[in-house]
# Entry
Amino acid sequence: MNRTITITRTESVKYIDKYTQEIRSTGQRVQNTYSQEWDEFCKVWGDTNNWAELDKNGKLQHTMFLGGACYTKRNDANTVFRSMLILDIDNQEGEELTTMEMVDEFLQGYDYFVYSTYSNTPEYPRFRVMLPLLDDVKAEDWKERQSDMKAFFSPIVQDTSCFTLSQGQIMPCYPLGKKHLAFTKRNQGVFFSIDTIPKVLKRDLVIDQFKTYQRNAYSDDTILDYVDCVSIALQGSLERSKAFIFACWCVANGINDPQYVERVLRYDANKTAYERAIAHMINASKSFMNYCGNNYHMGFYSKHLPADFWIKHAPQAETFKFDRTFDRFSQAKKEANEKGWSYYELPVTGRYGELHDQIGYVYGNNFLISDCGTGKSHTMMNDPMCIVLSPYTLLAEQTTKRDADGNLYPMNDIFYGSATYDQAEKLYNDYLSGGKKNEEALNYDYKEMTLVIDECHVLYNSSNFRRKAIRAVFSIMKLFKRVIFMSGTARPEYFSNVHFDKVIRVCKHYPFTKKISIFDHHNVYGLAYSLIQQSNLPGIILVNSKEDIEDIIKKYSDLKFKEITADTKSDTDVAP
# Structure
């Protein structure tokens, strides 16, 4: 068979600066895109005399290619279609080998071309398998089937990055003096169709969106008994690829003991079952989520279970009963007394501002734990002797201070009393250089001021902040008369390197009784919709992203929603 395929050549990923000898990144710009008959392509690439002989630096800077059409710069956004699949076979020491015989068996009857890579050795063969497609596959279709490709080719491909739409490969080459290690192979047959790959329906596409689902929970004992029964039933019967999937199932379900995989492996004269089981478990722990749609359910090996298994292990649904006798005020007061904290309670209509002047913050470090919604940030914002640091820009803008005439000062500017954590470094550098920026603004006398670190829990539980910014926050603390760490949820013991001179606990009474219902479900949209239908009262749906909020509003256009985010929560018009 023959067809026209398309190849795009691009720059290498890295290059060596000829002046500094530093390794730097290229723009991976496209050099040219061309089309060629498949038979002619295999003939040209199959001649190793056409390959480059390179040292390691030459290999680093060697031209790349993509098995499809791409423009300007190699990335997913610029890739138009793919003409072929290119499978990475990179055997590593300590792992079971994927041999040419295994590839031939898996791709039996298909047309494909194999060429060795620069790092190929007789002990650990490394090569690429170019599998031309019956028809070019558009970018959007490729990305839709990407997870299906990973699952389909898992018996021979461990490195699933080769299924990335814009994944590039280094043009054929070999090390200096090692042309004898370079090889190619052409197998003639029919062209591969992407429709051959089974399409795995995503779970959320087949679940009734208007139904709430309940999921069963399985105890550790049940899972252990399950894997033991299955491994006994399959003892000595699984070849490499199926044993690897069994290892993936084990890892996904919390089983890390290799004895079960060792038990099911078929005999191999070259390696012990234990060695192969260890390799499978290591590989499975790294990549189990890339196979079987990451859906390793309890029905996976059900046909190998004894007939009475589920009678002995009848799964129990998880339940939660709310403790109506729990009094959080008594608990909070008890904790405060035991730890020597100051304790306050606010009535339903009370605000933190009513307590602010009574608390008596001490010089040094204060820790304020005040329930959410008590108005503590608003209170600090209106105290002219406080500089308020917030973790996010929107929060810093909400605590922007005003002058004597009620006009807003510049937003997110630490020299006007309210800013993000990042600006602590700005204040510190200005202080060290003489304080000119402070003098041009409000000319704060820091040694008479209070530094308020709002939402202080972010300092220890968020990976989104640079260490440099966090260090700067701690560095400026010593400039101030007092510091108040402020949060609704944090505890002083979370900051092991800070000594707190006073801890204040404030609890607020709310005009409602809390009721908690816990649902174990598969479908978030279906759960939300069914609960809204069951209630005659307005409800609140808490969502972590604005995009998800927009999706929910579009999905249920028959319901009335009021969107409240950090951008809109100060709006006076709040719809029912």
Residues 218-312 form one domain. Residues 104 and 370 are 67 Å apart (CA to CA). The chain has a mean pLDDT of 87.
